[in-house]
Amino acid sequence: MIAPLFKLGAFGEETSLVLAFLIGIGFGFFLERAGFGSARKLVSQFYLDDLAVFKVMFTAIVTAMLGTTYLAWMGILDLSLVYLVPTYWVAQVVGGLLLGVGFVVGGYCPGTSIVSTATGRLDGLVFVLGFASGTFAFALAFPLLKGLYLAGDMGTKTLPGVTGLSYGVVVFAVVLMAIGGFAGATWVERKMATAKGGAPDEVSR
Amino acid sequence: MASLTHAAAGEAAAEEARRPQPYMNPYLAGIGLGLVLLAAFVLVGRGLGASGAFNSTIAWLASIAAPGFAHRNEFLSGYLAGDSHPLKAWLVFEVAGVFAGALLSGLLAGRAVATIEKGPRASVAGRLILAFIGGALMALGAALARGCTSGQALTGGSLLNLGSWAFMLCVFGGAYAVAWFFRKEWR
Predict the structure, then answer these.
(1) Which residues are bridge partners to A77 per DSSP?
(2) CA dihedral for B71, B77, B81, B87, sign (positive or negative)
(3) Cβ atoms B150, A111 nearer than 8 A
(4) Is A88 left (phi over 0), alpha (psi -120 to 50) or beta?
(5) Residue to substitute from B60, B64, B107, B137, interface A, most A β-carbons within 10 A
(6) By the 8 A CB rule, do B104 and A37 touch?
């Protein structure tokens, strides 16, 4: 096992912060390339005429998942050293629902609001300010919200751990689901385009 | 006559240059994002994120404005622990990179322009108010969930984290449930 390099002592914290900046550049670059600096492009996902959010997200998940699985299987990456957010399922279900509502109302998620601000969107900047205010409000209200924040504590849990299936089987299932999802998404986009009387091929890209 | 045609052609070319380039194919962009995420796992042992940088920034601002409150607050104090500066955090540097990378890509593609994203029927003031409210709602959600679309859905999703998958399904569920009510903002 030689990775994760930082956690196995290959370099210090200062270097990890430089890498953070460089990795961030890559992240921001591809988010913008995908069109995710535009709220209209992002929310199209929820009006079904452009499902790029789903396609990009699941392609990224599958790519990173196959990469980590392969590197772990090769004995290069120690997956147990990669940080996993603990599961508090009640807090994460409520948080997810709120985030979904905020996505449609605000037009962005935190990462894409940074992208939109960087590329000149005033609504993106206002979203960032709203997000900062909301974070402060959460901190103020934390004594009241602490119960919900800690609700559904299950510790660190993965899908293979909970289902009892092997890691490889779950990975395979996610890949199948993603491929089915991509085909379904393209089908929905074509249907929506036809319903609007446009040329189906224009939107599918 | 000839010079007029020439001028028109020149204007058309300039117009063409100003026109933003089309977005990248979603699968290619997804592979790019996935490889960046994989690099973070392999190099540092953690994934991508965004909301955590906001938490650090707010904790830092609060520690300046009201140090007593910030250090007593259970949520903020977690971001103020240790001797190092609160902004000397992995996600703060990563989000600074996101800004730089997005600007670079936007400039190269002619997409970095001062504008407001909204549907044709929405007013500017209405859109900005909703952007603020949406941002605030999302902050509550991300704080509760311990992450956002980057830290939870993308990062945790690819690590097959149970809570991340529950979170991700709920994000899509919540968004589809209310999209109809906000159609005037976007459509």
Answers:
(1) A3
(2) negative
(3) yes
(4) beta
(5) B137
(6) no
Burial call A120-136: b when 16+ CB within 10 Å, e when fewer: bbbbbbbbbbbbbbbbb
Fill in the DSSP letter of residue A156. Answer: S
Helix (H, G, I), strand (E, B) or coil at A120: coil
Q: Which residues of B touch A40 (CB under 8 A)?
A: 117-119, 186
Task: State the pTM of this model.
Answer: 0.93
Chain segment A124-138, per-residue pLDDT in tens? 999 999 999 999 999
Of residues B26, B74, B142, nearest to A99 (C-beta): B142
The complex scores an ipTM of 0.95
Q: Name chain B contacts of A103, Cβ cutoff 8 Å.
A: 134, 138, 171, 174-175
The torsion angles phi and psi of B115, rounded to 5 degrees, stand at -160, 175
Q: Tokens 């290619």 — which residue? A: B28
How far CA A98 is from CA of A109, A121, A190, B76, in Å, comes to 11, 23, 30, 21
Q: How far apart are the C-alpha atoms of A118 and A112, rounded to whole Å?
A: 10
**Which element (helix H / strand E) includes A177?**
helix A167-195
DSSP state of A3: B
